[in-house]
Design goal:
By secondary structure, this protein is of the alpha+beta class. Helix content is 18%, strand content 34%. α5 (366-380) packs across α7. It binds zinc ion (ZN) (2 copies).
Length: 472
């Protein structure tokens, strides 16, 4: 048997469009952010489409491996093995993949005993009530095609760990049957939200009410491979469905013909496809460094800008920063006078925070992100800012900006709600509690102390070193 492919490696996929410089096929990196053309050396940025893109799980077993695994399962079940008359059909079954941030509030009551020393009195028993709130990433998949006997309604976390590639037109011809999508992304999101809600309802608090809320769903489509094997012998035809990645037999012979699964409710779908653009300075056209940041300071002409940004955003850094520090980026939402006071009440800070500061780098440890956002927002009012340009940025290391503005806005909603529910466990979820007047990008200097970054000017804000990839 051939060795199975490693499950974590994702690189080595090409996409539909070629290099805008020379037309060569482009291999994608594992994070779908930047690519370098091996033919002409251009640094290219991967442009995500507005519509949900489609991907497919790429590992699949050879014909020989599939048959071997099926025969083994049949043998264990005491059934006839497959005959030499064997037909194998590869299916790609679509699932909506939904990534969201989940907030959980859990109320627990613990009984404790206080021992009373040197007295005839009995020990004292008392209850300790604890309310824990935390944010965590949540990923779920929901079947997007009509139900098919044996095929599971969700692939769980497998969409996160198996290698995936963008689905492109040339990949689906001939070899695969792509099952039609009959569930809309909105229906899938609603189903996922319901299951989260059910999860929350099932967990009763020891006091008060436990809560589970979810935010910021990002949706794309992932096709998972299944295999239908038909085998003929003197006793007739048998049909089996196997998991295309593990080769596991999913169900005993299925009755329906899989080719007749097309239903009239098929949704006409156009998927967004990944695009490529030069990762270059907008001003002088020179290639930008391959450092995976949306923010750049052009070494050639001095232009400072944010790539992939529809609106102009001002960038600045804390005045008086000590050179040599690591400049950590934050998206800053200016809330205007009316909301400043609400923000001050909410964050219980002595000086009114003028802006909500959201870390501008992608981290899945949302609870840590929330803490950093919270502390920085409280401390932010004490900084003065100077424009970020080639000369003011000279002498610093820049941490990359990896979170886009739309994602930062959604994250801001999460941070606000996480703060509100900390003060009032019954706080209602409302979209866009805050209405920013303006947005900018702020760089704040941090210095490394053992396993933590500490802000270099106030020594008031720290975060764990692993939270950010510092450029070397
Ligand atoms: Zn090229
Ligand atoms: Zn330039």
């Amino acid at each position: 048997m051939a060795p199975s492919q490693p499950a974590s490696k994702r690189s080595g996929f090409t996409i539909d469009v070629g290099c805008p410089g020379c037309g060569a096929d482009i291999e994608l990196d594992d994070d779908f952010f930047l690519a370098v053309c091996t033919s002409c050396g251009s640094v290219l940025r991967i442009v995500r489409p507005d519509q949900p893109p489609a991907f497919f799980v790429t590992t699949r077993l050879s014909r020989r491996e599939l048959r071997f695994k099926l025969d083994r399962a049949l043998k264990e079940a005491g059934e006839r093995l497959t005959s030499s008359s064997l037909q194998i059909k590869h299916l790609l079954y679509p699932y909506w993949r939904i990534k969201a941030v989940v907030l959980k509030l859990r109320n627990t009551r613990e009984q404790r005993t206080a021992m009373v020393v040197s007295s005839e009195q009995p020990d004292v028993e008392y209850d300790v009530d604890t309310t824990s709130i935390w944010l965590s990433p949540h990923e779920t998949t929901v079947a997007a095609a009509a139900p098919l006997a044996g095929v599971p309604a969700s692939i769980g976390m497998r969409s996160a760990i198996l290698p995936i590639a963008p689905l492109t037109s040339d990949r689906v011809e001939g070899d695969y049957d792509l099952l039609p999508v009959v569930v809309s992304s909105e229906e899938a999101e609603a189903a996922a939200a319901r299951s989260i809600g059910v999860m929350g309802m099932m967990s009763h608090g020891d006091f008060g009410q436990n809560r589970t809320e979810w935010f910021h769903p990002e949706v794309d489509l992932v096709y998972f491979p299944y295999v239908v094997i038909e085998t003929y012998d003197s006793n007739g035809v048998r049909r089996f469905v196997q998991d295309g990645v593990s080769g596991r037999l999913l169900k005993e012979p299925i009755a329906n013909d899989v080719s007749s699964t097309e239903t009239p409710s098929e949704i006409a779908m156009t998927f967004g496809s990944l695009g490529l653009s030069f990762h270059r300075c907008d001003n002088c056209g020179v290639d930008l460094p391959d450092n995976h940041s949306y923010f750049y300071s052009c070494a050639n002409c001095g232009r400072v800008d944010i790539a992939e940004q529809a609106i102009a955003v001002n960038a600045s850094l804390a005045a008086g920063s000590a050179p040599g520090s690591l400049l950590v980026p934050f998206w800053a939402f200016d809330l205007g006078r009316s909301q400043e006071q609400e923000l001050q009440r909410l964050f219980t800070s002595t000086t009114p925070p003028r802006e909500l500061l959201i870390p501008a780098f992608r981290v899945e440890r949302f609870e840590q992100v929330y803490k950093l956002a919270h502390r920085m927002t409280v401390a932010g009012g004490r900084f003065d800012w100077v424009d970020a340009d080639a000369s003011s940025l000279a002498g610093y290391r820049l941490a990359p900006v990896t979170l886009t503005l739309p994602s930062a806005l959604s994250l801001a909603d999460v941070v606000i709600f996480r703060t509100r529910i900390g003060r009032d466990p019954n706080a209602e979820v409302c979209d866009r509690w805050f209405r920013p007047d303006d947005v900018s990008l702020r760089f704040i200097p941090f210095k490394l102390e053992h396993y933590f970054y500490v802000d270099a000017m106030l020594s008031a804000v720290t975060f764990e070193k692993q939270l950010i990839d510092s450029p070397v």
